[in-house]
Amino acid sequence: MESLSEYKKAMEYEIMKYKLTSDALSIALWDMDIVVEDPISPNNKFTWSKEFREMLGFKSEKDFPNLLSSWSDRLHPDDKERTLEAFAAHITDITGKTPYDIKYQLLMKKGSYRHFHAYGNTLRDASGTPLRVAGALMDITEKIDMEEALQISLEETKKASNAKSEFLANMSHEMRTPLNAIIGLSSLCLENNEVDRETYQNLEKVHKAGATLLEMVNDILDISQVAELDSFRSFDDRKDKYVKPHRVSLPYAHVLVVDDNLTNLDVAKGLMKPYKMKIDCVDSGQKAVDAMRADLHKYNAIFMDQMMPGLDGIEAVRQIRELGSDYAKNIPVIALTANAVAGSEEMFLNNGFQAFLTKPIDIPKLDAVINQWIRDENKDRLYEDADTSEENKAGNESILSGKKINGLDIKKGIRQFGGDEDSYIRVLHSYAINTRAILASLRSISENRIHDYEITVHGIKGSSASICANDLAAFAKSLEKAAKAKDWEFISQHTQEFIETAQKLIADLDTLFSEIDADNPKPVKDKPDEDVLEKLKKACDAYDMDGVDAALDDIMQYAYEKDDGLAFWLKENVEQMNFSEIVDRLSKR
Predict the structure, then answer these.
(1) What is the 3-state secondary structure (H, E, C) of 415-434?
(2) Which of 53, 387, 396, 551 could form a disulfide with 535 if both were Cys (CB 3.0 to 4.6 A apart)?
(3) In the β-sheet with 100-107, what is the strand arrangement from edge to edge?
(4) 126 lies in a domain?
């Protein structure tokens, strides 16, 4: 009995400390005398303090009796089981090591739930048998509400930040991609020594305007840390004149360019042409991985776009690095992308890339990358005596002189391709073939596939602008905006008109091609030479774009009477870069 009395005194002392603490911290006390035979009996005597009752909205013992059920029946259904289990586990643990420290919700007298933090301690005899439990309750509703509000705020801030980053990346891509063509192609034209003075001056203005617009875009998107415009502008700021860069000849170099946009591939090839490098092109990340896995060529570097459907640039580089060979692990990969928001360069360098080039491609910046990652001074010496001068083109009569098509600015298109009519006509052929196939897919797109619709018209917008079919490009842009806004009504009302407008342009292009063929008749053969077909097959199998172009040019010099449409089929599939289909068909002939 003396021992029990000592325990009770100790417990009373603990209760006194709890009361002092409760007065200071605005918490409510409770305690329970335990029936020895059953520590968790509902008949144990509970004492709920005045503060405890008032905390729940009650005034007297009549409203809130000193019973376990007064408290337990008010536990939130989601909390009741775990709270009672925690209470029982604390009491029945004779070692006293299981704490009672828990948060739960209680039903207030007015009918709403509030959040509480409860904790307690148990007085035990020498054997660990529980004698009495005392504890405290603290209302933490405001704290929980503040934490939830803070979490919601943090999530909203994160969403806003992500939306901003996505917006900047998309804006950068949308605005810098056309500037890539403007600045890149005007640079190529300015290097043509046969351009007359007036045209040259106009081209300087175009190039200057493009560079100025690019600077404005960079300022708006706050990407000066990435672009560093002052370090690579190709204008002499004092004279406001275009400065032709000096580019060394690298005939020993072989590079792979990867971009899903065929116009971007043409621009990259054009800008790299003065280096005399062998340039292969593929239009997807997967084809780049396949080319590296096939190991048919030892490339000196890869220029890799980032934003591509399917396998994007970063994933393609990761798979290339994992091919296992020292060659695949160490080949320089240069990011070639319109995504130039802050942090992009670091992101690329941390994901297996060696350098970073933004679109529009800047020639001095490109030159610096080529000199650092591709040029080999030892090999330079082997070629230093070689004749690397450009042969001046003969002043051929214009093929497209006097030709007109409604909605197509032919003169501007030729200028956009540096005065190279053959290149422009080749792109027009590609446009007619590819767009005809794309238009067919627009007829079957439904409202639940509006994102696919957006991607499709976005592609037509870009390709139409690249050939200077500006009206159709503007039409496609309006449909793209409607798709982004989920305006299916506008899309439904105008898609058919858009398809018919595009089909009219394609039909006019087909007529133009027929007129060109009639004005420039080709010698006739029965069918293409087998050796040329074999060269084309090998070039397609090796992703050798120069070889593909050369072989196709040889084939298309002639008209064929007995080829069953093979030459035309080959031309269509080359323009669509369907190299595997070409290899398969030529292997079966």
Answers:
(1) HHCCCCHHHHHHHHHHHHHH
(2) 551
(3) 45-48, 28-33, 130-139, 113-124, 100-107
(4) yes
Number of separate domains in the chain? 4
Same-domain status, 303 and 191: yes
364: helix, strand or coil: helix
Q: Of the residues 516, 536, 554, which one is the last residue of a structural domain?
A: 516
Asked whether the beta carbons of 465 and 475 are under 8 A apart, the reply is: no
DSSP state of 29: E
Rounded CA-CA distance 583/563 in Å is: 17
Tens of pLDDT along the chain (589 residues)? 455 566 566 656 655 655 555 554 568 999 998 875 676 677 788 899 999 999 999 999 999 999 989 999 999 999 999 999 999 999 989 898 999 999 999 999 999 999 999 999 998 888 888 888 999 999 999 989 988 888 888 888 888 777 776 776 677 667 766 777 787 778 777 776 677 777 877 887 787 788 777 777 766 655 444 444 544 544 444 445 555 566 788 999 999 999 887 767 877 787 788 788 999 989 899 999 999 998 888 999 999 988 788 898 999 999 999 998 999 999 999 998 766 566 677 888 899 999 988 876 777 888 899 999 999 888 887 776 544 444 444 445 578 888 899 999 988 877 755 567 877 787 788 788 878 878 888 887 788 888 888 878 877 887 788 788 889 989 998 998 998 889 999 999 999 999 999 999 999 999 998 888 888 888 888 889 999 999 999 988 877 777 888 899 899 888 888 888 888 888 888 877 788 899 999 998 7
Let me know if residue 151 belongs to a domain: no
Residues 6+ apart with CB under 8 A from 139: 26, 55, 114, 115, 116
Do 554 and 480 lie in a common domain?
A: no
160: in domain: no
β-partners of residue 130 are: 124
Quick one: 189 and 251 in the same domain? yes
CA dist., res. 422 & res. 417, Å (int): 9
Pair 110, 191 in one domain: no
Within a domain: residue 405? no
Residue ending a domain, choose from 516, 534, 549: 516
Residues 145, 150, 151, 153, Cα dihedral to 10°: 120
* CA dist., res. 104 & res. 118, Å (int): 8
pTM, two decimal places: 0.45
Same structural domain, 25 and 75: yes
| Domain range for 261 | 165-383
Same domain assignment for residues 247 and 371: yes
Write down the residue that tokens 């120069």 correspond to: 546
For residues 48 and 173, state if they share a domain. Answer: no
Task: Assign 102 to helix, strand or coil.
Answer: strand
∠ CA 340-343-346, nearest 5°, is 105
Cβ atoms of residues 375 and 277 within 8 Å: no
